[in-house]
Amino acid sequence: MPGQKEEGLRFGIPGRYNGPERKNEAPLSDSPPYPEPPESGVVHCVCPHDCADTCSALAHVEQGRLVRLEGNPDHPVTQGFLCRKLSPAPRRVVGEERLLHPLRRTGPKGSGRFERISWTEAVGTIVSNWKAIVAEAGPRAILPFFGSGTEGLVQGEISGKRFFNRLGTLQLIRTICTRAGRTGYRYTMGTNVGADPTAIGKAGLVVAWGVNSASTHIHQHPFFRQAEKNGAKFVVVNPLKVRGAEKADLFLRPRPAGDGALALGMMNVIVAEGLHDKAFVERFTLGFDKLAERLKDYPPERVSELTDIPVDDIRAFARLYAANPASFVFVGPGCQRQTNGGMTLRTLACLPALTGALQHEGGGVYFPTSTVFPVDFHGLTGEDLRPNPAAGYNMIHLGDMLAAPRTKSLYVCMGNPASVLYDQNKLRRGLLREDLFTVVHEIHLTDTARFADIVLPSTMSLEHPDILFSYYHPSLLLNRQALKPRGEARSNLEVFNALARGMGFEDACFRRDAWRIIEEVLAMESPAIRHITMDELLDKGWAEARFEDAAACVAKGRFPTPSGKVEFECRRMAEEGLDPLPVYNPAKESREGSPEVFADFPLHFITPSAHAIHNSNYGAEESWVPEEKVPTLLIHPDDAAPRGIRDGDPARVFNRRGECRLKARVTDATRPGVVASTGQWWDSRYEGGCNPNHTTPDLAADMGGGSSFNSNLVQVENLRRP
């Protein structure tokens, strides 16, 4: 299936596997005894969340209980502090809501009614069902679904893919987060590596484009403050008034999906006024003349109509950007979660090449994506074990896959698709199928787990060893086991090894524990990590990986594109049937892209991250932020008034896909024509049991099969009783 190979190469620059052949019994090494969880002491661990910060932490354990987590003061990015999302870990580990035993469904699907069973019975039930399914319909009738509940390589990446490759199922193509953007960015740059985010302090201009780092990326703020201290200008581009926007020298609020048009308008001004770096463009770029011709289609006056940004602000931003070539642009993932998201990032990636920002340390565009880490771990995921050719399915289309009778079973771990995926009414019709055998391995009884036939209790990250990478700072980090698992909780690796035994798989890899797989990672022959030793990781919890940023490409005189240059004109795109030049295409659901839909549903509905909730990880908990105590709809006074909506009123947000009910917060934090709901709580927190993803589309983006849930038009009405 197209895209499966690229998903396998998720981690970027290839590194050759130098460990044992997976199908024989050759040992990797005579492994020394590795540390067990202490009765009391301090243990190096890592925050497992899908967050670029990837904090190195210290777990303080007393008499087998976690009493405190703190940031590792010796890590150059963590710098001794953690965000508040992780700080309640001591309470969460022992929380009453944790799953501690395997469960079997006793009530209707979705009812949450289960009975306790043994691990032997749970594994036996799964194995017997799967053997029957494989015999009747083949292994591709079984679907794995992995979320990002842990970013650990052992528990989150390797163990599950090895098992499902050996079983011969479809593999999951993970597209939900940054797939569209990183595909488009790579067309321009040849790689997803861009500006060095730890060098922001040397920038003369910092642009926060579609990102709310105060809520999602707090360890970048010391570097922001360093830039501010050195006199850097600060620009915010966001339809929402995010934290820190009040301090910006310039704050622009484009309509959703208009970011690419804004970039084209900026480039129009820069080229028309001769503000581009002509020497850099001549030496390091391809297709400038054709780009300059294309830019004539995007004068500020037209771009103002496409973005709702005043003409003067477009010109001011373009001139400020050109006047500060040592510029750092931090692009968040939200603006590429549109049907035009790939072309948006492809266009934004052209900006620093036009002004020569790439030749400055810390200069260019930084787009947080897991492919930035300079090693490919694909060789450890067991494709050599497959009994059939590799094939995959796009995770955003899980609803369609479950609607197909050929799908007989679903296995979910580290994820909550009944909360985070799109067009939830369609998805849940599939989850309700009585003939769909569903297994969920989880820490809590999530929205998805309530639809399961078998629920398995999972360890938390503090209860198993793992190794993690950062897609922000180039670090490889060791997560030592700090605690013994509670109840009968088992890690992903333990469960997959048990299922492998039950299915009769005799491959040596299914007898390896986490420490042996960590040894396999460290045995990879890659320039980025081959200097890292287990002793170093055990001693300080992390080690620096070696990588090249965009400035290093300039120093070498070559970028990793086919032409060796930054490609304003990308001939590969032409060969693939795409426009080879940056262009603005309106979102499929938008004023220009679907005027007939816009007539009935005239509000853009976006769902950015909340300040207190990480994805859906803490979606069952009450926030510490007052405005996030209940699910809320941000609506501008200009949109609230004609609908008779006052602050605090119950509001219904709806379109043809579904609806959700939210508490209205009338505010200028959002711009007119745009409504927003931050965070992702579980069903029980919403009146009526429906979250915003009952309205979002499962449309694929223009590149890479990425998600486009922000291309979403809705209407809002007041539910206040007379």
- The structural class is alpha/beta
Rg, please? 25 Å
Uncertain segments: 1-28
Distance between the termini: 55 Å
Globally, the shape reads globular
Bin the strand percentage: 15-25%
Total of helices? 24
CATH class of the largest domain: Alpha Beta
The side-by-side strand order for the widest beta sheet comes to 5-4-17-16-15-6
What's the number of domains? 3
Largest sheet properties: 6 strands, mixed
Bin the helical content: 25-40%
Question: Secondary-structure map with pairings?
Answer:
Elements: H1 4-8, E1 41-46, E2 56-62, E3 65-71, H2 89-93, E4 103-105, E5 114-116, H3 119-137, E6 142-146, H4 153-167, E7 171-173, H5 179-189, E8 205-209, H6 213-216, H7 221-229, E9 233-237, E10 250-252, H8 259-272, H9 278-284, E11 285-286, H10 288-295, H11 300-307, H12 311-323, E12 327-331, H13 341-348, H14 351-355, E13 364-366, E14 392-394, H15 398-403, E15 409-413, H16 417-420, H17 424-431, E16 437-442, E17 454-457, E18 466-469, E19 475-479, H18 492-503, H19 514-522, H20 534-540, E20 542-544, H21 550-556, E21 566-567, H22 571-575, H23 595-600, E22 603-606, E23 632-635, H24 637-640, E24 650-654, E25 659-666, E26 674-676, E27 713-718
Parallel strand pairs: 6-15, 7-14, 8-9, 8-12, 9-10, 11-21, 12-13, 15-16, 16-17, 22-26, 23-25
Antiparallel strand pairs: 1-2, 2-3, 4-5, 4-17, 18-19, 19-20, 22-27, 24-25, 24-27
Helix pairs in contact: 3-18, 4-18, 5-13, 8-11, 8-12, 8-13, 11-12
